[in-house]
Amino acid sequence: MPVSKEYSQDDAIAELFTQTCTTRSSCESKALELVGGTVVPVEVQGVCSYTVYAGPKLEYVVQFRLKSLKLDLKIATLAEQVYGSLAPSVKFHGALDENDNAEKEPLLVYVMERMMGITHLDFILAHGFPENSESNFASRRNLMTDIARFMALSWNAPQEVSSEYRESLCRKYISDLQLLLLSLPERFHPTIQRCLDQMDSVFSLPMVLLHRDFGTSNILVDESCHLTGVIDWAEAEICPFGQNLHSLEAFTGTVHLRNGWRRYEDYNNLQALFWNTFSDEIGRELSSETKKAIETSRIMALLLSRGFTKRFANLPPPTPICDNDVGRYNMLYLDGLLINTATKFLEL
Known about the structure:
Blueprint: H1 9-17, H2 24-35, E1 38-41, E2 49-55, E3 60-66, H3 73-83, E4 90-96, E5 107-113, E6 118-119, H4 120-127, H5 134-155, H6 163-183, H7 189-197, H8 199-202, E7 207-210, E8 219-221, E9 227-230, E10 237-240, H9 249-252, E11 253-256, E12 260-263, H10 267-282, H11 288-306, H12 325-339
Antiparallel strand pairs: 1-2, 2-3, 3-5, 4-5, 6-8, 7-10, 8-9, 11-12
Helix pairs in contact: 5-10, 6-7, 7-11, 11-12
């Protein structure tokens, strides 16, 4: 996302520790106590945690998270059950320096086995140019095939939820979409209204466990761009299938602040490859009604993701985007994928 200055690991770490009642040295000592070896901070830190590699061979990830943003261990366990080795195994090791300081949060400690590979973002930085070379065509085919198989794992493992859970989620979607109907420019109103009108069809889709931040920084790949793992499941939740499919666009095109979205030359082939592989993995072709429901689910998820400010438990409630740096960047997504005829979502 857009930033006003160059990313600084030290600044990001320092900012995290202004919010907590413990210290960086205490965290690193705890990591050594738990897994031994040495401690190396991960290159890009999250906004709500301090994360390090540790162990004799740096084979573990130790993460210290603000208590208000604790991991749901039931979701972490379910992710392992649904996605197997593509999701990390997570163990909880208590809190550091929990006290009664109302202005500072304790940090909760989690240990995970380190998943092999590099982020897809790092792969692109190392190998992504020229974008439309034969080697990058091959890399994107590998990744899109594996992502289709990954998504099919959730379809093949539908989750039972209570009627109360389903109704609560539906009410939340409707409330947020109605807010966007009042806040976003008029050109988006027909699309938002379509989502509201077709809410029942979205909730006819399987309820599945979805990774909600399925982007280039959370996808791990090998040297051939095959998927090796998916990290950062903090925002994962059970919801109708299709709620993270808008993320596929980031693997089949690119967005720039000045010019907006641009598709790779193999965009159409990659989209077809995804859905052909997905159909093979679930063992059937999707009906036209199901495809329409998935299209709406994908659009709705994009609106709810890019139409609002960030959703974190320790921040004020999200509000519709406005005319600032974040708002303008998110608007590139909305215009590019919903309005611009050259780059908007293809029909399934």
